[in-house]
């Protein structure tokens, strides 16, 4: 792929929010879907083989699933701690502050 074509694609994304406009690409860049996680592998030659799914999905699972679970647990702990602090005092309810 030429640098000129790459610049056209990036401009299309910024201006039109669609990499397929206003020029026609050798392939149609698919819209994002949280189930299939489509992406286009940018290489020297764009073709149907450039369209892929699930980019590094094993690694992205950490950010999509595990981090929100940890944040939810932390927020639940903070909420419970705030509720209990009025009965036990703030210094005795600092467990969430020590969570890694």
Description:
- With 100 residues, this protein is mainly α.
- It folds into 2 domains: 3-55, no CATH class; 58-98.
- 46% of the residues lie in helices and 6% in strands.
- The chain is built from 2 helices and 2 strands; from the N terminus they run H-E-E-H.
- It has helices at 3-16, 57-88; strands at 38-40, 51-53.
- Strands 1-2 form a two-stranded antiparallel ribbon.
- The radius of gyration is 23 Å and the shape is elongated.
- The mean pLDDT is 78.
- N-to-C SSE string, H for helix and E for strand: HEEH
Quickly count the helices: 2
How does the major sheet shape up? 2 strands, antiparallel
Alpha carbon gyration radius: 23 Å
- What is the subunit arrangement here? single chain
Number of domains: 2
Largest beta sheet: what is the strand line-up?
Answer: 1-2
- Class inferred from helices and paired strands: mainly alpha
Give the helix/strand layout:
Elements lengths: L2 H14 L21 E3 L10 E3 L3 H32 L12
Antiparallel strand pairs: 1-2
Short description:
The protein is mainly alpha-helical. It is 46% helix and 6% strand.
Keywords summarizing the entry:
100 residues; 2 helices; single chain
């Amino acid at each position: 792929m030429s640098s000129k074509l790459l610049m056209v694609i990036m401009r299309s994304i910024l201006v039109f929010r669609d990499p397929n406009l206003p020029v026609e690409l050798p392939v149609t860049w698919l819209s994002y879907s949280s189930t299939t996680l489509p992406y286009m592998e940018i290489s020297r030659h764009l073709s149907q083989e450039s369209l892929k799914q699930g980019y590094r999905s094993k690694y992205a699972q950490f950010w999509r699933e595990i981090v929100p679970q940890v944040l939810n647990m932390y927020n639940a702990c903070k909420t419970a701690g705030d509720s209990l602090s009025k009965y036990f005092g703030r210094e005795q309810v600092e467990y969430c502050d020590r969570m890694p």
